[in-house]
Amino acid sequence: MKKILFPTDFSAIANNAFLYALKMADTLEAEIVLLHTFDLPIIENAEMPMNFKEIYDTLEVQQMESFKDHIPNLKIIASYNNLDHIKLSHILKSGNLIYAMNETVVEQNISLVVMGTSGTSNWFETLMGSNAGEAISMLPVPVLSIPIEAHYQKIKTIAFTTLYREKDMTALKRVMDIADKLNATVKCLYVKKSGSEITDDQISLWEARCSQWPVQFFVIPHDNVRETIQDFLHSQHIDLLTMLTEKRGFFEDLFSTSLAQKLSYKVDVPIMALHEEE
Q1: Rounded distance, CA 222 to CA 6, Å?
Q2: Which of 27, 28, 37, 251 has the fewest CB atoms in 10 Å of its CB?
Q3: Taking Cα atoms as reference points, which of 261, 184, 199 lies closest to residue 230?
Q4: Model confidence pLDDT, tens digit, residues 165-190
Q5: How far apart are CA 124 and CA 130, in angstroms?
Q6: Alpha-carbon span 16 to 150, nearest angstrom
Q7: 65, 52, 123: which is closest to 92 by C-alpha?
Q8: Residue closest to 33 by CA, chosen among 103, 108, 115
Protein backbone atom coordinates (compact mmCIF):
# COMPACT_ATOMS: atom_id res chain seq x y z
CA MET A 1 0.00 0.00 0.00
CA LYS A 2 1.19 3.53 -0.77
CA LYS A 3 2.09 5.90 2.05
CA ILE A 4 1.45 9.62 2.39
CA LEU A 5 3.59 11.63 4.78
CA PHE A 6 1.75 14.33 6.71
CA PRO A 7 3.98 16.53 8.93
CA THR A 8 1.95 18.28 11.61
CA ASP A 9 2.41 20.68 14.49
CA PHE A 10 -1.33 20.35 15.28
CA SER A 11 -1.95 23.96 14.30
CA ALA A 12 -5.02 25.22 12.42
CA ILE A 13 -2.85 25.32 9.28
CA ALA A 14 -1.96 21.64 9.64
CA ASN A 15 -5.48 20.55 10.57
CA ASN A 16 -6.85 22.34 7.51
CA ALA A 17 -4.42 20.42 5.29
CA PHE A 18 -5.19 17.11 6.99
CA LEU A 19 -8.48 16.72 5.14
CA TYR A 20 -6.58 16.96 1.84
CA ALA A 21 -4.23 14.25 3.08
CA LEU A 22 -7.21 12.05 3.97
CA LYS A 23 -8.89 12.60 0.61
CA MET A 24 -5.67 11.84 -1.29
CA ALA A 25 -5.17 8.71 0.82
CA ASP A 26 -8.69 7.59 0.03
CA THR A 27 -8.24 8.24 -3.70
CA LEU A 28 -4.81 6.63 -3.94
CA GLU A 29 -5.65 3.77 -1.56
CA ALA A 30 -2.86 4.85 0.73
CA GLU A 31 -2.20 5.11 4.45
CA ILE A 32 -1.04 8.24 6.25
CA VAL A 33 2.15 8.54 8.27
CA LEU A 34 1.90 11.44 10.74
CA LEU A 35 5.19 13.14 11.54
CA HIS A 36 5.86 15.51 14.43
CA THR A 37 9.25 17.01 15.22
CA PHE A 38 10.61 18.71 18.31
CA ASP A 39 13.73 20.68 19.14
CA LEU A 40 16.25 19.73 21.80
CA PRO A 41 17.04 22.50 24.30
CA ILE A 42 20.24 24.52 23.90
CA ILE A 43 22.55 23.95 26.88
CA GLU A 44 24.37 27.25 27.51
CA ASN A 45 26.62 26.06 30.35
CA ALA A 46 28.82 23.42 28.78
CA GLU A 47 30.54 22.67 32.11
CA MET A 48 27.33 21.70 33.83
CA PRO A 49 27.35 17.89 34.37
CA MET A 50 24.19 16.59 32.75
CA ASN A 51 22.88 13.29 31.54
CA PHE A 52 21.99 14.21 27.97
CA LYS A 53 20.37 10.86 27.27
CA GLU A 54 18.08 11.38 30.26
CA ILE A 55 17.17 14.85 29.00
CA TYR A 56 16.42 13.51 25.53
CA ASP A 57 14.40 10.57 26.82
CA THR A 58 12.35 12.85 29.07
CA LEU A 59 11.62 15.26 26.22
CA GLU A 60 10.75 12.42 23.88
CA VAL A 61 8.26 10.98 26.36
CA GLN A 62 6.69 14.40 26.89
CA GLN A 63 6.44 15.04 23.16
CA MET A 64 5.00 11.59 22.49
CA GLU A 65 2.34 12.13 25.15
CA SER A 66 1.47 15.47 23.57
CA PHE A 67 1.41 13.78 20.15
CA LYS A 68 -0.99 11.12 21.41
CA ASP A 69 -3.21 13.77 22.99
CA HIS A 70 -3.74 15.37 19.58
CA ILE A 71 -4.39 12.16 17.63
CA PRO A 72 -8.08 11.98 18.70
CA ASN A 73 -8.67 15.40 17.10
CA LEU A 74 -7.35 14.11 13.78
CA LYS A 75 -9.49 11.00 14.08
CA ILE A 76 -12.53 13.20 14.66
CA ILE A 77 -11.78 15.04 11.39
CA ALA A 78 -11.50 11.68 9.62
CA SER A 79 -14.70 10.32 11.17
CA TYR A 80 -16.70 13.48 10.43
CA ASN A 81 -15.77 13.17 6.75
CA ASN A 82 -16.42 9.40 6.61
CA LEU A 83 -12.71 8.74 6.18
CA ASP A 84 -12.00 6.93 9.44
CA HIS A 85 -11.11 3.81 7.46
CA ILE A 86 -7.80 5.46 6.46
CA LYS A 87 -4.95 3.86 8.38
CA LEU A 88 -2.92 6.31 10.49
CA SER A 89 0.50 5.73 12.03
CA HIS A 90 2.71 8.27 13.77
CA ILE A 91 6.40 9.04 14.02
CA LEU A 92 8.18 11.41 16.39
CA LYS A 93 11.62 12.81 15.51
CA SER A 94 13.88 15.46 17.00
CA GLY A 95 15.64 18.15 15.01
CA ASN A 96 15.12 19.93 11.70
CA LEU A 97 11.75 19.32 10.06
CA ILE A 98 13.02 19.01 6.48
CA TYR A 99 15.79 16.62 7.53
CA ALA A 100 13.26 14.53 9.48
CA MET A 101 10.89 14.50 6.51
CA ASN A 102 13.63 13.43 4.12
CA GLU A 103 14.67 10.66 6.50
CA THR A 104 11.08 9.47 6.88
CA VAL A 105 10.47 9.52 3.12
CA VAL A 106 13.32 7.02 2.72
CA GLU A 107 12.57 4.91 5.80
CA GLN A 108 8.84 4.60 5.11
CA ASN A 109 8.97 4.50 1.30
CA ILE A 110 6.72 7.55 1.08
CA SER A 111 4.96 8.29 -2.23
CA LEU A 112 3.56 11.77 -1.50
CA VAL A 113 3.94 14.52 1.10
CA VAL A 114 0.94 16.66 2.06
CA MET A 115 1.54 19.70 4.24
CA GLY A 116 -0.05 23.00 5.17
CA THR A 117 1.47 26.41 4.64
CA SER A 118 0.46 29.81 5.97
CA GLY A 119 -1.57 31.89 3.57
CA THR A 120 -1.12 35.58 2.91
CA SER A 121 -1.99 38.03 0.18
CA ASN A 122 1.51 37.32 -1.09
CA TRP A 123 1.37 33.56 -0.81
CA PHE A 124 3.94 32.71 -3.49
CA GLU A 125 6.62 34.68 -1.62
CA THR A 126 5.48 33.10 1.64
CA LEU A 127 5.80 29.65 0.09
CA MET A 128 9.35 30.42 -1.05
CA GLY A 129 10.55 31.00 2.50
CA SER A 130 8.45 28.37 4.21
CA ASN A 131 8.99 24.77 5.21
CA ALA A 132 6.68 23.83 2.34
CA GLY A 133 8.90 25.70 -0.11
CA GLU A 134 12.01 24.03 1.25
CA ALA A 135 10.30 20.64 1.15
CA ILE A 136 9.39 21.16 -2.51
CA SER A 137 13.03 21.87 -3.31
CA MET A 138 14.63 19.18 -1.13
CA LEU A 139 12.37 16.13 -1.00
CA PRO A 140 12.56 13.49 -3.74
CA VAL A 141 8.80 12.83 -3.86
CA PRO A 142 5.82 14.99 -4.92
CA VAL A 143 4.79 17.60 -2.36
CA LEU A 144 1.21 18.85 -2.09
CA SER A 145 1.19 22.16 -0.21
CA ILE A 146 -2.11 23.50 1.12
CA PRO A 147 -2.57 27.21 1.93
CA ILE A 148 -4.74 27.95 4.95
CA GLU A 149 -7.36 29.59 2.70
CA ALA A 150 -7.86 26.38 0.73
CA HIS A 151 -10.86 24.77 2.37
CA TYR A 152 -11.30 21.33 0.87
CA GLN A 153 -13.57 20.88 -2.09
CA LYS A 154 -13.69 18.08 -4.61
CA ILE A 155 -10.85 18.39 -7.12
CA LYS A 156 -12.61 18.70 -10.46
CA THR A 157 -10.10 20.72 -12.51
CA ILE A 158 -6.30 20.39 -12.43
CA ALA A 159 -3.88 22.85 -14.04
CA PHE A 160 -0.44 21.80 -15.22
CA THR A 161 2.20 24.34 -16.25
CA THR A 162 4.50 23.35 -19.09
CA LEU A 163 7.45 24.61 -21.10
CA TYR A 164 6.86 22.01 -23.84
CA ARG A 165 9.93 19.96 -22.96
CA GLU A 166 10.28 16.19 -23.05
CA LYS A 167 10.40 15.99 -19.27
CA ASP A 168 7.16 17.99 -19.13
CA MET A 169 5.54 15.27 -21.22
CA THR A 170 6.56 12.66 -18.64
CA ALA A 171 5.27 14.84 -15.81
CA LEU A 172 1.97 15.48 -17.62
CA LYS A 173 1.46 11.72 -17.92
CA ARG A 174 1.76 11.48 -14.14
CA VAL A 175 -0.74 14.30 -13.74
CA MET A 176 -3.16 12.53 -16.10
CA ASP A 177 -2.90 9.39 -13.95
CA ILE A 178 -3.77 11.43 -10.85
CA ALA A 179 -6.65 13.13 -12.69
CA ASP A 180 -8.00 9.76 -13.77
CA LYS A 181 -8.14 8.59 -10.15
CA LEU A 182 -9.79 11.86 -9.08
CA ASN A 183 -12.14 11.88 -12.09
CA ALA A 184 -10.87 15.40 -12.81
CA THR A 185 -10.15 17.31 -16.01
CA VAL A 186 -6.69 18.71 -16.85
CA LYS A 187 -5.87 22.10 -18.34
CA CYS A 188 -2.30 22.58 -19.53
CA LEU A 189 -0.89 26.11 -19.45
CA TYR A 190 2.11 27.58 -21.22
CA VAL A 191 2.97 31.20 -20.50
CA LYS A 192 4.84 32.31 -23.61
CA LYS A 193 7.27 35.11 -22.75
CA SER A 194 8.37 37.55 -25.44
CA GLY A 195 11.84 35.99 -25.60
CA SER A 196 10.59 32.42 -26.01
CA GLU A 197 12.32 30.35 -28.67
CA ILE A 198 9.55 27.74 -28.81
CA THR A 199 7.78 27.88 -32.18
CA ASP A 200 4.12 27.32 -32.95
CA ASP A 201 5.10 24.19 -34.89
CA GLN A 202 6.93 22.77 -31.86
CA ILE A 203 3.88 23.45 -29.72
CA SER A 204 1.57 21.76 -32.24
CA LEU A 205 3.78 18.68 -32.48
CA TRP A 206 4.08 18.40 -28.68
CA GLU A 207 0.32 18.72 -28.20
CA ALA A 208 -0.37 16.20 -30.99
CA ARG A 209 1.52 13.59 -28.99
CA CYS A 210 -1.04 14.07 -26.20
CA SER A 211 -4.06 13.56 -28.44
CA GLN A 212 -4.95 10.33 -26.63
CA TRP A 213 -5.35 12.21 -23.34
CA PRO A 214 -8.40 14.28 -22.34
CA VAL A 215 -6.44 17.50 -21.79
CA GLN A 216 -7.01 21.10 -22.89
CA PHE A 217 -4.08 23.34 -23.88
CA PHE A 218 -3.76 27.07 -23.29
CA VAL A 219 -0.93 29.22 -24.65
CA ILE A 220 -0.99 32.72 -23.14
CA PRO A 221 1.55 35.35 -24.29
CA HIS A 222 2.77 37.33 -21.27
CA ASP A 223 6.05 38.26 -19.61
CA ASN A 224 4.74 38.06 -16.05
CA VAL A 225 4.56 34.30 -15.56
CA ARG A 226 3.38 34.35 -11.97
CA GLU A 227 0.57 36.83 -12.54
CA THR A 228 -0.60 34.93 -15.60
CA ILE A 229 -0.69 31.66 -13.69
CA GLN A 230 -2.68 33.29 -10.93
CA ASP A 231 -5.20 34.78 -13.37
CA PHE A 232 -5.51 31.37 -15.00
CA LEU A 233 -6.25 29.68 -11.68
CA HIS A 234 -9.16 31.99 -11.06
CA SER A 235 -10.58 32.30 -14.57
CA GLN A 236 -10.49 28.53 -15.18
CA HIS A 237 -11.75 27.61 -11.68
CA ILE A 238 -8.71 25.47 -10.93
CA ASP A 239 -8.85 23.25 -7.83
CA LEU A 240 -5.24 22.02 -7.96
CA LEU A 241 -2.12 23.44 -9.61
CA THR A 242 0.57 20.95 -10.62
CA MET A 243 4.01 21.79 -11.90
CA LEU A 244 7.40 20.23 -12.54
CA THR A 245 10.12 21.59 -10.29
CA GLU A 246 13.80 21.97 -11.03
CA LYS A 247 16.63 21.24 -8.63
CA ARG A 248 18.03 24.68 -9.38
CA GLY A 249 16.28 27.86 -10.34
CA PHE A 250 12.67 26.76 -9.88
CA PHE A 251 11.60 29.38 -7.35
CA GLU A 252 14.09 31.96 -8.58
CA ASP A 253 12.76 31.88 -12.14
CA LEU A 254 9.06 31.48 -11.46
CA PHE A 255 8.31 33.20 -8.19
CA SER A 256 11.12 35.59 -7.29
CA THR A 257 10.29 39.26 -7.88
CA SER A 258 10.98 42.58 -6.28
CA LEU A 259 8.82 43.75 -3.39
CA ALA A 260 7.21 46.26 -5.73
CA GLN A 261 5.71 43.41 -7.75
CA LYS A 262 3.82 41.68 -4.97
CA LEU A 263 0.58 40.01 -5.93
CA SER A 264 -2.53 41.93 -5.02
CA TYR A 265 -4.91 39.10 -4.20
CA LYS A 266 -4.85 35.76 -2.48
CA VAL A 267 -3.95 32.38 -3.89
CA ASP A 268 -6.15 29.73 -2.34
CA VAL A 269 -5.31 26.84 -4.65
CA PRO A 270 -3.16 23.91 -3.49
CA ILE A 271 0.06 23.25 -5.42
CA MET A 272 1.44 19.80 -6.16
CA ALA A 273 5.11 19.96 -7.09
CA LEU A 274 6.41 17.03 -9.13
CA HIS A 275 10.09 16.21 -9.44
CA GLU A 276 11.85 15.28 -12.63
CA GLU A 277 12.21 11.52 -12.90
CA GLU A 278 15.82 10.42 -13.08
Answers
A1: 36
A2: 27
A3: 261
A4: 999 999 999 999 999 999 999 999 99
A5: 10
A6: 8
A7: 65
A8: 108
